[in-house]
Specification:
Largest sheet of chain C: none
Helix content of chain C: over 70%
Number of domains of chain B: 1
Oligomer: heterotrimer
Chains: A alpha+beta (about 180), B mainly alpha (about 100), C mainly alpha (about 100)
Strand content of chain B: under 5%
Low-confidence stretches of chain B: 84-95
Number of strands of chain C: 0
Shape of chain B: flat
Radius of gyration of chain B: 17 Å
Structural class of chain C: mainly alpha
């Protein structure tokens, strides 16, 4: 229901091919990690499992729903881990404090990510941020529940969005 | 090191057990589901610690299975938990 | 050298255990459903992450280490998604979402 001009599904076949390949390779690599064995029989089973998993993932999450640039995401990984550490410390301090300093409330954040895969990924990543958990969304907003609603949550999320815009590519291209 | 790992496993398990009090107290189903989530992540930590303590690698596969089960349990809860007001569309802001 | 590695493990796993304690304390002490959700998503995931980090030096080889990390990522991501879904279910299910400020 957004403005979505739904422009040019042009290189659809191309992107499906690329998604199939990258997901297939990724899932097979995951199999190797989970089942470290070089026996041919195991590898055949792994290849079949990876092919099946790729097929299911293409059914459930078509390439047109958006994609993730893993290299860009990986570059942000240290930051996520650090934020996650801060978030845990924040919660622990509040939980252990004799008098809990809680000022919970909802903050509505206006996001540039259209509804869909990119926004879901954004919400998942922000749920690791200190002090806020995404709990709902509207056409172009995400609602966060905050332990301390007086914190500058909107500014914090805007910064995250700016950084993640390179890594999370929405489905319909907006320019 | 092994004693330390076992001790840590026991401690984490005790924390999970304590958290399960939330299942008794509720009040909502969501609160109970969170305690079940804790059973997932805490159980995995305890399994990994215990497995490392006794030097058994197969425990890692058990914890992997537990991780999958915990994920499915939450999805099942959200999918099948009875909504309070039937026919109500999406929740409005009620701050 | 190995004592240094052991020290690293002690610190990481000990810190992880403290975050599990924090998660449980938060789950029991925090006043309403959505604040309790914070305790769960932030503290426990970090606790498991630190435990995995502390165990990494003790596994033999790169693949088992990657396997541990894969388990942690699975728990982290599925937990983050599950907590959002639980939050929505909680707000749907409880008409009075929280006592006033």
């Amino acid at each position: 229901m957004t403005d979505g001009p739904a422009r040019s599904p042009a290189p659809a076949a191309n992107s499906t091919m690329r998604a199939t390949l990258s997901r297939g390779i990724g899932l097979f690599a995951l199999w190797i990690v989970l089942m470290p064995s070089a026996k041919p029989a195991d590898l055949v089973v792994g290849a079949l499992a990876a092919a099946g998993a790729t097929w299911v993932s293409l059914r459930l999450l078509p390439p047109a729903s958006g994609r993730v640039r893993f290299a860009a995401l990986l570059a942000l990984l240290p930051r996520f881990l650090w934020q996650s550490l801060l978030a845990g410390i924040d919660v622990a301090r509040r939980a252990f404090a004799p008098r809990m300093r809680l000022a919970p409330g909802f903050v509505t954040y206006r996001t540039g990510f259209p509804r869909g895969q990119a926004r879901n990924n954004f919400a998942t990543i922000t749920s690791l941020m200190p002090g806020s958990v995404p709990v709902g969304d509207g056409p172009d907003t995400i609602e966060f529940h905050c332990l301390d609603a007086s914190q500058p949550v909107v500014e914090q999320m805007a910064e995250e969005e700016r950084l993640l815009a390179k890594a999370l590519v929405p489905g319909e291209r907006h320019g | 090191m092994a004693e330390f790992l076992l001790g840590a496993a026991g401690f984490v398990l005790a924390m999970v057990a304590l958290g399960l009090v939330r299942i008794l107290r509720g009040p909502g189903d969501a609160d109970r589901m969170m305690a079940a989530q804790l059973l997932g992540s805490g159980g995995i930590a305890a399994l990994l610690l215990g497995g490392a303590a006794i030097g058994d690698d197969t425990v890692v596969d058990v914890s992997l299975t537990l991780a999958l089960l915990a994920a499915f349990a939450s999805i099942a809860f959200v999918q099948f938990a009875p909504p309070s007001s039937p026919g109500a569309p999406d929740d409005e802001e009620r701050t | 050298m190995s004592t240094l590695v052991d020290l690293f493990s002690y610190v990481a796993i000990g810190a992880g255990a403290i975050f599990f304690l924090a998660g449980t304390v938060g789950l029991l002490r925090f006043p309403d459903t959505l604040t309790r959700l914070h305790a769960l998503t932030k503290a426990d995931n970090l606790g498991l992450g630190l435990v995995v980090l502390g165990l990494l030096p003790h596994v033999a080889g790169v693949l088992p280490a990657l396997k541990l990390i894969a388990i942690w990522l699975l728990v982290l991501l599925s937990g983050a998604d599950a907590s959002q879904l639980i939050a929505r279910a909680a707000r749907r299910g409880e008409p009075r979402s929280r006592p006033g400020p």
